[in-house]
Design a protein that fits this description.
By secondary structure, this protein is an alpha/beta fold. It has one domain: 2-Layer Sandwich (Transcription Regulator spoIIAA). The protein contains four helices and five strands; from the N terminus they run ββαβαβαβα. A five-stranded mixed β-sheet has the order 1-2-3-4-5. The relative contact order is 0.18. The model has no long low-confidence stretch (mean pLDDT about 85).
Length: about 120
């Protein structure tokens, strides 16, 4: 699993997730993204178009990330979610927690203009 910073624009970052999010990499994911959030990024888009699987530990990592960013007044949005990952997120009702969009552009637009 790789998490690749795709784009940074002010306080917004697009992060591409490749592979899976599970017990083998969830701690590294949390550490990396919390460091990013601590650096002033509070609008985060995770591109899940290449995310092939997610475990309960991976779900916990996403929830922890959401809580951390929300505490700083920010938001985490997911885009490109499909297949099994979409089924898991929907079954756990996390599609109601995270803004979910078909692509990066729609997710970016959903933040609206910054004051």
């Amino acid at each position: 699993m790789e998490f690749i910073p795709e784009e940074i624009d002010g306080d917004m970052m697009v992060l591409r997730a490749d592979g899976g999010l599970d017990a083998t990499n969830a701690a590294a994911f949390i550490k990396e993204v919390e460091a990013i959030a601590g650096g002033g990024i509070n609008r985060l888009i995770i591109d899940c178009s290449n995310l092939t699987h997610i475990s309960s530990v991976g779900l916990g990592a996403l929830i922890r990330l959401h809580a951390r960013v929300a505490k700083q007044g920010g938001e985490v949005k997911l885009c490109g979610v499909s297949g099994v990952v979409m089924q898991v997120l929907s079954m756990m009702r996390l599609d109601r927690v995270f803004g979910m969009y078909p692509d990066i552009d729609q997710a970016r637009l959903s933040f609206g203009p910054r004051d």
